[in-house]
Amino acid sequence: MKRTLTFFLAVACTAAAEEKSLMHMYNVSALTVKITNFRGRELGFGGLSDGSDMGAIGIGTSGGEEEGTAIPGEDLKLLISQNVAVGTWDSPPHSIEYYNGSLIVVHTPAVHELVKKFLEVLRSRAYKTVIIEADVVELAPGVLETAAGTVLTEEQLKAVDAAASDPARGRRLATLRACGLNTQRFNASARGQESHVRDYDIEIAQHAAIADPVIGIAETGYTLDVLPTVSLDESLILLTARFSCGESVAMREFQPGGTYLGTIEQPDQAAARTRTTLVIPAGKSAVLSSAGYSGTAKGWAQVVILRASIAGEASLPFPAAAKPVQCRLLDTRAILTRAPDFPGPRLGGIHVGEGSSGPTTTFVPPESETGVLVTPEQLETMIKQNVTAGAWLEREGEVAIALTGNQQLIVCHEAVVLAQVEALLGRLMASRSRIVSVDSWVVALDPTAWRERRTALSGEIAEAAWAELLDAAAKGNGARVVGRASAAGLNGTRFHTARGVMHSLVMDHDVEIAESASSLDPVGGVVAEGISLDVTPASVGDSGQIQLDLRPTVVIGGEPKEFLLKDKLGKVQGTSLADFGVRTQMLVDAGKPALVGIGSREDGGKSEVLLMFVKATIIDVK
Amino acid sequence: MKRCLVVFLACAAAARAQEEPERISRAYDIRFLTQEVENFKGPAVGLDEVAGGDGAYGSEDENGPAPVTGEFLVAAITTNFDEDSWSDERNTLQYDSGVLYVTQTKENHEKIQKYIDMLRRRFSRRIIVEAEVLLLAPEAFAASGALPGLLTAEQDKALHDAAADPARGRLLTLLRAVAMNGQRVFAADLSEKSYVRDYDVEIAQDQAIADPCQGNLVTGAVLDVRPILANDLGTVLMDTRFKLARPRGIAPFDPATATLGTLELPSHDVLRTRTTLSIPLGRSVLLCAGPIAGEKDWLGAVLLRPTLTGQSGTDETASTEKRQMRMFDVSSLTAGVKDFPGPSLEMSGGYDGADPSTSFSPPQDEGSSLSPEQLIEAIQDNVAPESWKNARNRLSIMGDQIVVVQSPAVLEEIAKFIAVAAPARNRIIGVETVFVAMDDAAWNARRASLSGASPAEEGLKDLLAAALKGGGTRILTSARGVCMSDQRFHVWAGGEFAYVQDYDVEIAEKAAASDPVIGLLTTGCVLDIRPTLAGDGKRLHLELRPAYNASPGPETFDPKAVNIGKLHKIRASIFAVQAQMYVTDGAWALAGVATSGAGGKRETLAMVVRARSMEVK
User: Shortest CB distance from B453 goes to which of A4, A131, A217?
Assistant: First the structure.
């Protein structure tokens, strides 16, 4: 931790320095400030003490924090020496040193003025705060029929606001606002915590046994956890978003029976979670995700709308250089930053064995973090091959590209070439700003309705047939929408959104036995019902087709039921689940629905056919 | 001719023998100067004892260095006073166990005595730190115009006037600590009450017994400071740890088992800060302020005022030597500024098996100020750089001092150099944070003005003004504090309560019993922040970790398991923001918003923050 003695020695050294050359200490601690990444608290599906978020940043560090640097001090020193009084810094007594948040510069008064101005420019560009706001609303069908990832118009936002204040059409669940630095992971949350007796451990000895209560903490509320990366021209924000929520549905009391066991408290929680990386224009709003399923009241969808803004003063232009070759710090982090893959949840019934960390194991652990990435070396090669190709080698030592410690580029060249490099970086950013929105529907048809539509829904689905199906589902004419989930993410990255309800149950008992004593030891579990869309989309060239790597799931659960174990007077709980999932890869036409899976279920003697559709849309965010 | 010369030399020798000055042997008691400075860490207050806090009453910190060493004194005296005379074996100087044994002429003894007197004067200075803890009505506090940091005379008077008027406030306590330069000391005004904190259970065949554990609830106020005097004797840099703990009650709790008796569960209200700040001597600062839960909506405000006492006089060494040895106190430049992370408000434990007892994060960082070695390097580079090639001119470190042997002219230059370096820590930063809650109607009315990249400060001021009036907008809590630039510090305004969170079990043949586990919940508001001057004179960078936790208190729950007693259910509502942001110096900024539905009551919570830097003068 630096402890900058601001202005330390500045005046002192001025008095002591040689004639004409002055020493001055510049406080650059805020330019070189350490960026602390703050991992948000996972709620809902993730549960407490979730160690499953293997996101790129903030993992495995104490308190969920790890640090980066805004501009490394040595890079700052290099940048100044290559732009101000170039070529004079190696001649004593002139010098520039970075120490603990301060630049100690010895040079003439005129050069000091230039250094001050240069620092002003850097400050104007670096002192930006990124603000991410989230509105979580529940909307009736038809209020906001737009693909996730779409930048919303003012009219659409007004329509959402209007619906949110009309109880018949929607309601606002939560608003969140978090702010942080460019490339920083930060969060805001409002949470409720409730302790409860979630289990018993059994201790047993000769003629005696006792149940040791195990205390759990049920956590509810909303967490917005984001990592924004601003593009070079500050027009776009690449945003890795982790949104989660948990709403308390009930805290049930269950008597597991047995001689020694007491009451177990079982929380039921409505949960939602989205993890993805998408691109939002600065100052605009976009839909992060939308999800609803049959368990949702009135069939409404929970929609999360994100708005990204940048606060700070206008960036000053770099001062005119005395020499033709200038060096610029080009923020390429939005191009080079890794977009993590976010595998989705596995819904259904999960046993929680002894020694497990509880119902936090709902999700399959992440398999990959690679995503799509341009490496710094590739970027350098691209620049050298596309901008004044060949000149870089010929003028080696005069012009150069260097990567800073935090993935920004320092490019030294003439102003006209620097402009071309910036233009190339702009095109690369535009390419990275392509996101893919994926919508998924699970529709249940009664056997008659299925027979009538089977031909129309197999193969390529005509627009009319699709519209007719949705209309029938809305009206309940032999069809109903069991669930719908949509989210958007960077082309080539895996992302997910999920919504459902988690029930804690005692699914089993272990037994403990000793001489003249025995006892049941309850084994807890979790049943998660709802819908999960887990997808890796990749647009295939300009053909308008998208390859989807699909892992969606819908679980329809029944009410927990109790079963009596007669021999020991103990009880366990269970539930029936309809688990409909698809694991496949397929090529779909952009903007057109496709049938990806069919299943069937029996419920109370009534059978229905479950159809899973997806529709993927390419969005070039501008 | 030859004979004349012999006679002349003989006469001269006789005359010299007659003029030979008298040598006196004398012992100087300098233990006062060479004794290590004892540091005294303040006592644990409140429920720190339960939470494994930071030390028992009156415990000692590691001792600080002695003002000077015997070796230094020997070197300084032989260098500064009649340097050549010490080559005469009849003149001796020896240091042993705090005593200087000197054989010298009367004239030189006088010089040595004066030098030692000068050192005694210099190190007999004491820094007095007074803290006043005021309880003020929010209107009175607002009317005073007091902000965290340096107070004007008018603000100081307004706060004291309000405290003297029972309708507007009162003085809760007054603390005064006296320290040597660089010494850690404390003053405490405490009361103690014993209670049955817990039971340990002992078990054997057919038998179980509960062994009661006595706790000691310590409440009151503690001021724990380490002041370091700046070279100009005008300001002090001070590590400050202040805690006010006011008892709320000790509630009896019957676990209702055959083995256990009644437990006593204490709760108390807290106002605490840990920080470092630079204060001009004789000026008052508002160290921290925040609500004290047991006092309706009144605010506790802590005022701090350091003064200097001790013998005055010059620090000059009355030497006439060409080359002299002098020491310079650079402790205010080289002292590290510690980070003080705030307490966690999270309810921990549960699935991961950790105890949910709340404990404080220890300081993570001792700071890395300018080291004495770096300061020496800077002096050598900038003050008479050529002269240091002469090995007789030298610089060395002695505790918090640097010791220089140089010509008087260069010593003066070094003094000037260090003097102008002293304002290095000439700015402190006051931070205020307010948590505001809005119902749906109030939020909808203000949503537009509180959204977007930079909500206008007028909108935030209006929000705060509306919150003071109540209605759909209310102030949940607030905290104010002050620190150095780039330091992480905290203010905690809230409370703590103990509860029965769980039972461990003990079992033996034909016997089983439950052993209660006592938990602590920390509530209220924690302002945990690291503000840094942005270097452009108009903005600040903030690293924010504020949090707010409200809990309605424990509810009794009977699990109805055999031999297991009743325990407590805890509900907590937490609002937390973790972020970094740039803010305009002195302007309110919106740091975070979140909607809370805890306890069935939906409110949108906003956290606003204002940081203001000020020059210490």
Answer: A131
Interface contact B597-A220, CB threshold 8 A:
yes
pLDDT given at position B600: 75
Q: What is the pLDDT of residue B61?
A: 62
- Closest by Cβ to B501, choosing from A23, A127, A215: A215
Helices A109-126 and A73-81 cross at an angle (nearest 10°) of: 130
Q: Which residue of A has its CA nearest to B382?
A: A16
Query: Ramachandran region of residue B600, left (φ > 0), alpha (ψ -120 to 50) or beta?
Result: left
Rounded to whole angstroms, how far apart are CA atoms B574 and B562? 34
Number of Cβ within a 10 Å radius of residue A494: 27
The closest alpha carbon to B501, from B159, B334, B322, B265, belongs to B265
Which pTM value belongs to this model?
A: 0.87
Q: How many CB pairs under 8 A join A and B?
A: 320
Return residues 522-561 of B near A (CB < 8 Å).
Answer: 532-536, 539-541, 543, 545, 557-561
Paired tokens of B36: 């290590």
Overall average pLDDT of the B333-338 stretch: 80
Structure tokens at A151: 């930048």
Three-state secondary structure of A294-318: CCCHHHCEEEEEEEEEEECCCCCCC
ipTM score of complex: 0.86
The token pair at B184 is 């850690």
In the block, residue with structure tokens 């509630």: B251
Helix (H/G/I), strand (E/B), else coil: A378: helix
With CA atoms as reference, the chain B residue closest to A183 would be: B580
CB atoms under 10 Å from CB of A599, counted, come to 17
Residues of B in contact with A191 (CB under 8 A): 573-576, 596, 598
Measured CA to CA, the distance from residue B176 to residue B234 in angstroms comes to 20
DSSP 8-class letter at B598: G
* Cβ density class B197-219: b for 16+ within 10 Å, e for less: bbbebebeeeebebeeeebebbb
A35 contact residues in B (CB cutoff 8 A): 580
> In the structure encoding, which two tokens stand for residue B445, read together?
């009315």
Instruction: List pLDDT tens digits, range B366-420.
Output: 344 567 777 788 788 777 878 898 988 988 888 778 889 999 889 888 887 777 6
Summarize chain B as % helix, strand, coil (round to 5).
25, 45, 30
Q: Would you say residue A4 has pLDDT above 80? A: no
Give the chain B residue nearest A102 (alpha carbons): B535
* pLDDT tens digit sequence for B541-590: 999 999 999 998 899 999 999 999 999 999 999 999 999 999 999 999 99
Confidence band, pLDDT 50/70/90 cuts, at residue A537? very high
